[in-house]
Amino acid sequence: xxxxxxxxxxxxxxxxxxxRELPIPTPGPGxxxxxxxACGICRTDxxxxxxxxxxxxxxxxxxxxxxxxxxxxxxxxDGLQLGQRVxxxxxxxxxxxxxxxxxxxxxxxxxxRFTGYTLDxxxxxxxxxxxxxxxxxGAGDAVATAPLLCAGLIGYRTLRFAGDAQRIGIYGxxxxxxxxxxxxxxxxxxxxxxxxPGDRAAQQFAAELGAxxxxxxDESPPEPLDAALLFAPAGETVPxxxxxxxxxxxxxxxxxxxxxxxxxxxxxxxxxRSIRSVANLTRADGEEFLxxxxxxxxxxxxxxxxxxxxxxxxxxxxxxxxxxxxxIVP
Length: 330
Ligand SMILES: [Zn+2]
Ligand SMILES: [Zn+2]
Known about the structure:
Blueprint: E1 4-10, E2 17-23, E3 31-40, H1 43-49, E4 66-73, E5 85-88, E6 91-93, H2 99-102, E7 113-114, E8 126-130, E9 135-136, H3 142-145, H4 151-160, E10 167-171, H5 175-186, E11 190-195, H6 200-208, E12 213-216, E13 225-230, H7 237-244, E14 245-253, H8 266-269, E15 274-277, H9 283-292, E16 302-306, H10 310-319, E17 325-329
Parallel strand pairs: 10-11, 10-13, 11-12, 13-14, 14-15, 16-17
Antiparallel strand pairs: 1-2, 3-4, 3-8, 3-17, 4-5, 5-9, 6-7
The chain binds zinc ion (ZN) (2 copies).
């Protein structure tokens, strides 16, 4: 049997992905090995290769929306079987002991490790994962499932912080937005989609997904919003969204990194408006969202790339050439 695999590797930070042959990893205690069928790309991957996230493991196999079948079990693994289809998200390991882990906030774990950042991820033919963070997923299309694991899951956590808001503004209409817009419509909420100024393709896409209003991020919506979800990495969307929400409204920042937020008058925050961020995910989020997605049902729009084209996929994401979600297929 061949004991090496193809992988796309980040060797310097910042850097670009290069094709390498690596030893096929062996799962340690409590881990499973996965034969990767699909791995979604995400703006966070750009933050990693651009060194906006500053502490990657190096060399690193990025990719944190991994879907594949278990092909080896480490010692002490129960609950998953050989051949079972699983999905692995961004949060890849937690300590289980710190005050956050013990209080149901494992997403804030002091010692958390992250798939495709501080742990090797899914831009490879095989990956290993902690069995606690390998969610069973259905036998459906692996490519369609991959974007659910970050765009869907962290997007869903972002939406949860909007509470029962009816009018929801979504800033940045990429992978997360196109999934969460479907969930909103299913829940009977109204989506107001804000794109980069002049991005007609994204505006058209948002309208097709049921947005009741589409416009540019520097425009005002026709009526005040109850909440705004920010998936664009642009700090200037924060004061823009604050101006768009009603008194008591919330602005939820769903990304892991954002350019600096420009100063804004206190009057924009006044009226008990609030701003909050979303960090990572919990296993409970994963279980809840992965059960909900087929009921909606969420249909992801994907563009696939072969493994060797992972850097080109990220370049397309950066340039705004991608509609929906990009997915790497080894
Ligand atoms: Zn992500
Ligand atoms: Zn912890």
